[in-house]
Amino acid sequence: MGNGVCSRRQRRIFQCLLLVTVVCGMMYGGMVSYEMHKQLKRTEVMALKYQQHQESLSAQLQVYEHRSRLEKSLQKERLEHKKAKEYLVYKLEAQQSLNKEKNQHEDLKKQYYELQEQHQVQGEDHSRLVDEHKERYDKLQKAKELEISQL
C-alpha cells in the first residue's frame, strides 16, 4: 500500500508537472504568438512604407518621363522655329534681292529710253546739220560755178 500511495503522490506530482508544463507551454505559445503578431505588424508597416515609396518613385518617374517628353517636344519646336526663322530670313533676303534687281532693271530701262531719246535727238540734229552743210555746200558750189563761169 505504501507503494500505491507513493504512486498516487508521484502521479499527483506528475500531473502538477504536466499542468505546469502545459501552462508554461501555453504561455510560451502566447508570447511567441504575440511576438509573431508584433513582427507581422512591423512587416506590414514596412511593406506599406515600401509600397508608398514605390508609388512615390513611380510618380516621380512619370513626372520625369512627362518632363522628358516635354523637353523633347520643346527641342523639336525650337528646331522647327529656327528652321522657319531661317526660311523667313532667306525669303526676306530673296525678296530684297529681287526688289533690288527689279529696281536696277527699271533704272537701266529708264537709262536705255533716255539714251535712245538722246540718240534720236542727236540723229535729228546730225541730219539737220548734214542738210545745212549740204545746202551751204551746194550754195558754195553754185557760187564757185558762177564765179568760174564769169571768169
Automatic annotation (TrEMBL):
The chain crosses the membrane at residues 12-34. Residues 91-150 form a coiled coil. It comes from the Eukaryota. The keyword Secreted does not apply. One of its GO terms (cellular component) is Golgi membrane. Keywords: Coiled coil, Membrane, Transmembrane, Transmembrane helix. The keyword Metal-binding does not apply. This is Golgi integral membrane protein 4a.
